[in-house]
């Protein structure tokens, strides 16, 4: 059996994107969905406590660059403008897609950044 403490340490060291990739890989491997498990668990938790608070609306979003859409130079320019990164850092970010461009921002800012990156030719997700 695996050393649980070592596993916890390894999982704690993951970035948000790596954790998301791990989640997707496990969903595919085991044929389950994390969203379905949460949906099933939520009614059970609400029924046991009686007055369960309503689910909070998500207030922080991450803008994820999925790919450059073949317009790498335009996307790098836009990433530099959005993030204030240097040329090398912006190029590395674009080339390592999927990668977070901005994390923990409000929905309006996330939508604005997504629109700018898509206009530059990139494929973008908001999570």
- Beta-strand residue percentage: 5-15%
Tell me the number of helical segments per DSSP (H or I, 4 or more residues long).
6
Rg, alpha carbons:
18 Å
Structural class: alpha+beta
Globular, elongated, flat, extended or rod-shaped: what is the shape? globular
Number of strands: 3
Structure write-up:
The protein is an alpha+beta fold and 127 residues long. Helices cover 58% and strands 14% of the residues. The protein has six helices and three strands; from the N terminus they run αααβααβαβ. It has helices spanning 4-12, 16-30, 34-49, 72-83, 87-95, 107-119, and strands spanning 61-67, 99-105, 123-126. It starts with a helix and ends with a strand.
Jot down its keywords.
6 helices; 3 strands; globular; alpha+beta; 127 residues; 3-stranded antiparallel sheet
Which SSEs are present, and which pair or pack?
Elements: H1 4-12, H2 16-30, H3 34-49, E1 61-67, H4 72-83, H5 87-95, E2 99-105, H6 107-119, E3 123-126
């Amino acid at each position: 059996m695996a050393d649980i403490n070592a596993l916890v340490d390894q999982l704690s060291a993951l970035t948000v994107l790596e954790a998301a990739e791990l989640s997707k890989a496990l969903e595919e491997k085991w044929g389950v969905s994390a969203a379905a498990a949460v949906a099933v668990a939520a009614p059970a938790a609400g029924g046991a406590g009686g007055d369960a608070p309503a689910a909070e609306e998500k207030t922080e979003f991450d803008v994820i660059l999925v790919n450059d859409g073949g317009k790498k130079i335009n996307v790098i320019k836009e990433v530099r403008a959005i993030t204030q990164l240097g040329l090398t850092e912006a190029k590395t970010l674009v080339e390592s897609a999927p990668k977070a461009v901005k994390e923990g921002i409000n929905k309006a800012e996330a939508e604005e950044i997504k629109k700018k990156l898509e206009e530059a030719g990139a494929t973008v997700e908001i999570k």
